[in-house]
């Protein structure tokens, strides 16, 4: 076995470790886990802000025209961010990212470009980042439904 693929077996099996007395109680463990998630939420929001800024740059550079290299880079950026908002419990942003990735995937395979539909997604991204869509679930659901309609309409041409 080479050095990069070592398997570590703990001295104490997990089942026995769980039954051993001592350590934190469940309440303390949950509090610690929540603190850890809070720090991840802050980091994920910063990363999402960076993704939004980079997406805005790609959108501006497209200048309303299809550019295969730019659309591929744009798609990779958005596709890579999918799942990141879920760490922060913001499924609305994640749904928007999936919708935008679907739209960009359509554009990169069809060779078309829909400037307005991409702009709507980016505006929604910015809105959801600022307002944290979880505060108004009904309004957020309506926004996401509208985005899906925009994506479907663009795919139909």
Task: Give a topology summary.
Layout: H1 14-19, H2 26-62, H3 68-81, H4 84-87, H5 91-110, H6 115-131, H7 137-156
Poorly predicted regions: none
The major pleated sheet works out as: none
Q: Name the overall outline.
A: elongated
Task: Please state the average pLDDT score.
Answer: 80
Helix amount, in percent?
Answer: over 70%
Spatial separation of the terminal alpha carbons: 55 Å
Treating each run of at least 4 consecutive H or I residues as one helix, how many helices?
A: 7
Number of extended strands: 0
| Main structural class | mainly alpha
Spell the H/E element sequence.
HHHHHHH
Report Rg.
21 Å
Beta content? under 5%
Structure description:
The protein has 157 residues and is mostly helical. The protein contains seven helices and no strands. It has helices at 14-19, 26-62, 68-81, 84-87, 91-110, 115-131, 137-156. The longest helix has 37 residues, at 26-62. The chain is elongated, with a radius of gyration of 21 Å. It starts with 13 loop residues before the first helix and ends with a helix.
List descriptors.
157 residues; single chain; 75% helix
Brief summary:
Helices cover 75% and strands 0% of the residues.
């Amino acid at each position: 076995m080479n050095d990069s693929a070592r398997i570590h077996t703990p001295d104490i099996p997990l089942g026995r470790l769980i039954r051993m007395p001592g350590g934190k109680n469940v309440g303390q463990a949950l509090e610690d886990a929540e603190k850890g998630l809070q720090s991840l939420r802050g980091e994920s929001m910063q990363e999402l802000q960076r993704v939004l800024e980079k997406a805005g740059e790609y959108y501006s550079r497209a200048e309303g025209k299809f550019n295969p290299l730019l659309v591929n880079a744009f798609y990779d950026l958005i596709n890579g961010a999918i799942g990141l908002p879920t760490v922060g419990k913001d499924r609305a942003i994640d749904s928007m990212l999936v919708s935008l990735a679907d739209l960009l995937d359509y554009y990169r395979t069809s060779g078309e470009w829909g400037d307005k539909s991409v702009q709507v997604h980016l505006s929604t991204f910015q809105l959801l980042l600022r307002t944290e869509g979880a505060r108004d679930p009904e309004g957020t659901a309506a926004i996401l439904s509208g985005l899906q309609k925009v994506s479907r309409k663009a795919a139909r041409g």
